[in-house]
Amino acid sequence: MSGVDGSVRANGRKAIFITGAASGMGLETARLFAGEGWFVGGVDVNEAGLTRLKEELGADNCLVQRLDVTDREAYRAALDAFAACTDGKLDLLYNNAGIGRGGPFADQPWDDVLAVVQVNFIGVLTGIHLAIPLLKATPGSLCFTTSSSSATYGMPMIAVYSATKHAVKGLTEALAIELKPYGVRVADVLPALIDTPILPKGAAASAPKAGVFRAIPPREVAETVWEAYHSDTLHWYVPRELVRLDHMATLEPERTRDEMAAGKLFATIDAEVAAATPIPIGATAG
C-alpha cells in the first residue's frame, strides 16, 4: 500500500531485496515472493525489465530501482530507499546480479576480466556490507547469494567467472559464522545450467535433456530461495545431484581435473548419481 505522501509502504509485510531482478532467476524469485505476500525490492541495470516487473507485481507491492551494483553510493541510496518502505527491515537479501564473459583466459580482454570481478564479487561484497545493519535489525533474516556449479571446481573457459563464484562460496561460509550471533543466517545457491539470459545464445537448447547439466528453468532456483528462507542449510545445489561434483572436487581434485580435461566429467557425475543412493534435501559437500 502507499503512504499518505504517495510513497509505497511494506506495511508489515516481509521484505526481500533482489539484485538482478529484471530477468531470469531474480525475476522468478520476485514473482514467487510477491505471490506469497512479500514486499519486493528489485534492482537491475535493465530498466525496461524493471518497468515490466513493476507492472506485473503492482506498484503497491514493490519498489524497483535502476542500480549498477558496482556503484557503492548508488547501492547505499537504493537500500536507503528500500528501508524507508520497510521501516528499516530486510528479511531476505538476495545477491543475484551477475554477468558471464568467458573464453580462454589468456585471450580475454582485461576490461572483461575486471567487469566480471566487479559485478560478481565486488557487487556482492558491497551489497552485504551495506545491508548488514538492516539484516541485524530483522529477526530471522537471511543473506542469500547466487554462487554457481563452477564454484565446485574451477571450470575452463570461464575461469574468472568460476573464481568469483568460489569467492562467493567462501564468503558465505565465513559470514555464516560471523553473523550467526546476530541471528542473521547466510547461505548460497549453486546452480548448474539455468535457462537465463546469462547463457550464450542456444546453450539451453543444445544442453542434455537429462542429467546433472540439463537446462533447468529459473523457477526452480526461485523455489530454492523460498526453501532456503525456511531452513538453516548453508549450500543449496540446483539440481540437488550437483552435490556429487562438490564431493568429487573436494576429495579427488586430480581425478576431477583429468576427467574434465578429457571431456568426461559430466558423464562421470551422471553415472555416479545413477549408481548412488538418493541425495537428501539440503545435502552439502563434506
TrEMBL record:
Keywords: Oxidoreductase
Record's keyword annotation contains Zinc: no
Gene3D superfamilies noted in UniProt: NAD(P)-binding Rossmann-like Domain
Entry superkingdom: Bacteria
Record flagged with keyword DNA-binding: no
Coiled-coil residue spans: none
PROSITE patterns: ADH_SHORT
Family of this protein: Belongs to the short-chain dehydrogenases/reductases (SDR) family.
NCBIfam families: PRK08267.1
Protein name: SDR family oxidoreductase
Source organism: Sphingomonas olei
